[in-house]
């Protein structure tokens, strides 16, 4: 039944002036015979290296391909015959090791997604020439070792996703702070080697959290992993009115309640995961105090110098908190010290509390 619904939907869409071609069995049917009138093409899965020579799609604005077989010649055909492309998504394409120079002819490209291209290693040659790019995603490109400095040339970039680039070792200093339009930054299970110095200086080689927080006036979503919450600049002020969504963690993978913790998608609740830390130290950081006030999902593990969770973390009562998980914090005596609590209602939105390894 669902095949019938899909075919009817595609048939209706094909009558629209904005012509769509969507095939979920493209490997059997291959490339379309007539394609010069389409504005959107999605082929799953498809042998990309079988793309017709001389292909011309002058009206095509969105191309989405999923398939393993790929050659640089096929990418040259795509770029030369689809110069009006605004969105290019190549998903789980194993043959791509470097971005071809022909990609630079797509001057109007707004979105480039190479999710799951696990053999991709070199993205430096052409990326800086895509000057109108707004969305750039390398999710699960696990062989990328370094973000090229050319990404810093993308002044219109609004979203950068390097989730699950788990071998990423280097982000050059100054790259992130150059992204003056960036609104969403996703770096879960990715880069962790942040520069530790609290101040900016010319001799820095690696990206720092000072750079990230310099984007806070326009940054709306921040998903990062850090070695220690003390890497946040202590003298940086984040207003409590900031609308940023966040998932920030210093957790080592496998450390939490069986090891599962992930945003999973672009929609998530504000989340903090703090492990192996001293409460008296991270509570001195203004940014951390503001994040506690906005936090909806809080995970604490092996925290020192923390007796009364609510009294010491947020005097306003963690008004947005929905989920609280605490693991291996033997110094904790109470969630709330009722004898001294005279503030507003504590945990008004709480849905779940989980404690493990807290004998007191």
UniProtKB/TrEMBL annotation:
The keyword Repeat applies. Keywords: Plant defense, Repeat. SUPFAM superfamilies: L domain-like. InterPro entries: LRR_dom_sf, LRR_R13L4/SHOC2-like, Plant_NBS-LRR. Gene3D superfamilies: Ribonuclease Inhibitor. The keyword Zinc does not apply. Residues 43-215 form the Disease resistance R13L4/SHOC-2-like LRR domain. Coiled coil: none annotated. This is Disease resistance R13L4/SHOC-2-like LRR domain-containing protein.
């Amino acid at each position: 039944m669902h095949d019938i619904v899909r075919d009817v939907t595609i048939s209706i869409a094909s009558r629209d002036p904005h012509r769509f071609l969507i095939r979920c069995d493209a490997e059997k049917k291959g490339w379309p015979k007539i394609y010069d009138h389409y504005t959107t093409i999605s082929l799953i899965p498809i042998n990309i290296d079988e793309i017709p020579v001389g292909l011309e799609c002058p009206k095509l604005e969105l191309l989405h391909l999923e398939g393993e077989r790929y050659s640089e010649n096929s990418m040259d055909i795509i770029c030369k015959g689809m110069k009006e492309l605004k969105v290019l998504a190549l998903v789980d394409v194993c043959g791509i090791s470097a971005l071809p120079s022909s990609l630079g002819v797509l001057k109007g490209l707004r979105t480039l997604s190479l999710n799951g291209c696990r053999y991709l290693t070199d993205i430096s040659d052409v990326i800086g020439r895509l000057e109108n790019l707004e969305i750039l995603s390398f999710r699960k490109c696990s062989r990328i070792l370094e973000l090229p400095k050319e990404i810093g040339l993308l002044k219109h970039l609004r979203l950068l996703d390097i989730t699950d680039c788990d071998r990423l070792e280097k982000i050059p200093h100054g790259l992130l702070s150059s992204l003056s339009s960036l609104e969403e930054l996703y770096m879960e299970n990715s880069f962790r080697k942040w520069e530790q110095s609290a101040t900016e200086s010319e001799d820095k080689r690696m990206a720092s959290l000072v750079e990230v927080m310099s984007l806070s006036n326009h940054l709306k979503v921040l998903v990062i992993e850090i070695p220690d919450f003390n890497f946040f600049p202590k003298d940086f002020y984040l207003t409590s009115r900031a609308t940023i969504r966040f998932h920030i963690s210093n957790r080592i993978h496998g450390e939490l309640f069986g090891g599962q913790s992930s945003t999973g998608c672009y929609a998530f609740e504000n989340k903090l995961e703090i492990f192996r830390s001293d409460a008296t130290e991270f509570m001195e950081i203004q940014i951390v105090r503001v994040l506690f006030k906005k936090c909806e999902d809080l995970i604490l593990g092996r925290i020192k110098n923390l007796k009364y969770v609510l009294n010491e973390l947020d005097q306003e009562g963690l008004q947005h908190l929905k989920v609280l998980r605490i693991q291996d914090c033997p110094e904790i005596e109470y969630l709330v010290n009722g004898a001294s609590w005279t503030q507003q209602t504590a945990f008004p939105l709480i849905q779940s509390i989980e404690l493990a390894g807290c004998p007191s």
